[in-house]
Amino acid sequence: MTTMTDTSNAARFREFKMPDVGEGLTEAEILKWYVQPGDTVTDGQVVCEVETAKAAVELPIPFDGVVHELRFPEGTTVDVGQVIIAVDVAPGSGDAAPAAVPVPAAEPAAEPEPEAPKGRQPVLVGYGVAETSTKRRARKGAGAAVPAAAAAIQGELNGHGSVAAQRSRPLAKPPVRKLAKDLGIDLATVVPTGEGGIITRADVHAAATPVPAQAPAPVAAEAVPAPEAPAPAVVTTVGARETRIPVKGVRKAIAQAMVGSAFTAPHVTEFVTVDVTRTMKLVAELKEDKDMAGVRVNPLLIIAKALLVAIKRNPEVNAAWDEANQEIVQKHYVNLGIAAATPRGLIVPNIKDAHEQTLPQLAASLGELVSTAREGKTSPAAMAGGTVTITNVGVFGVDTGTPILNPGESAILAVGAIKLQPWVHKGKVKPRQVTTLALSFDHRLVDGELGSKVLADVAAILEQPKRLITWA
Fold this sequence. Notes:
Blueprint: H1 7-12, E1 13-17, E2 27-33, E3 40-41, E4 46-51, E5 56-60, E6 65-70, E7 77-79, E8 83-88, H2 148-157, H3 163-168, E9 171-172, H4 174-183, E10 198-199, H5 201-208, H6 249-262, E11 267-275, H7 277-287, H8 299-313, E12 319-322, E13 327-330, E14 336-338, E15 340-342, E16 345-347, E17 350-351, H9 359-374, H10 380-383, E18 388-392, E19 411-415, E20 419-425, E21 428-442, H11 448-463, H12 467-470
Parallel strand pairs: 9-10, 14-18, 18-19
Antiparallel strand pairs: 1-8, 2-4, 2-7, 3-6, 4-5, 6-8, 11-21, 12-13, 14-17, 15-16, 19-21, 20-21
């Protein structure tokens, strides 16, 4: 850690602390550093990506200068308020730089990152700048030299905090590390074949290939990382029958929220099977409508609009249970949550004031929400304040389910797969597009009658989409 020895040096080196990027979060894990000691940074430049219990967020630095020290390596969980980076805001002033041991990212040679579009703004909560892009800002000053004193130490330690850590931590580029994480492979157990002992993609795939039972491969000794190095995200062994994955970040928050919801709110789930042939015809027509040009039209759009109309007709369902004050909180707005499966787990971002949006606006909001979630760039603010949720299990070919309520909400609608099935239509059995809907609700504030009305209204609209006009 840097030690400031005089007033001039203290003024020269500024420290950036881990901010609270969510709502009262206490810690975050450093996923990736975008800068290294010696790099030039500017006010608003993204310097790292962190993962909280809610989302992955990029952090912009609020001042200009040259990176002097990274206090924590990638993979470290840092408390809010701890210094994560020190920056020389007056380089070349002649003052002696304080002695420090830089701790850069573990990768020996990161692949170049794509240029970001102009006008990109930081996404850090608290800086007052709105999100306008999910692309990363290109690194600046990547070729700047590390200060001589720090460079000598960095060359010896190779960015791992100690010689022992450098020897025990495997060498691999970021894409290879991600591949290993996705496959559940501990890089410490992979035999490197690349130049200089670097692990390649082929090495990871070889380690992931199951070993035939008749000729089991020898089990490699488990590598024990030095205390200075972060624990690997996945702990496993070549040829092992189990993989152990630490529960943290978004996955840990999801587990806690689901347990809390399941054992706090008394869930009731009702089901209805409905003929959605007319809805599917409407979707096909809207795709050709010039007013819907540039937005994605799919059955989920009509289902979302149908649920919003059903809530308008039955506003009591749009509420929350306040346990502390023993009150039912009626919401006069609808923040429509859409459950999205991402590499970091299931998240539920929501469309703010969805009840006020026209069909084209709702289509645009759905497209942006899904795109941002898939890229792992959903902000904590986008997941806060939801009132009711839709989960589309039909995209996996599943007919229906019994969804668990998103904490703080009173209802969640599950949409099953839409399939061609025999159906009695106008007195005759015909092939029709059919799906099953399931509505789970909190029985403390939504009784069977209210829940049934909401579900019946959604089904009726999907069967006769013209009700979107007559009931709106």
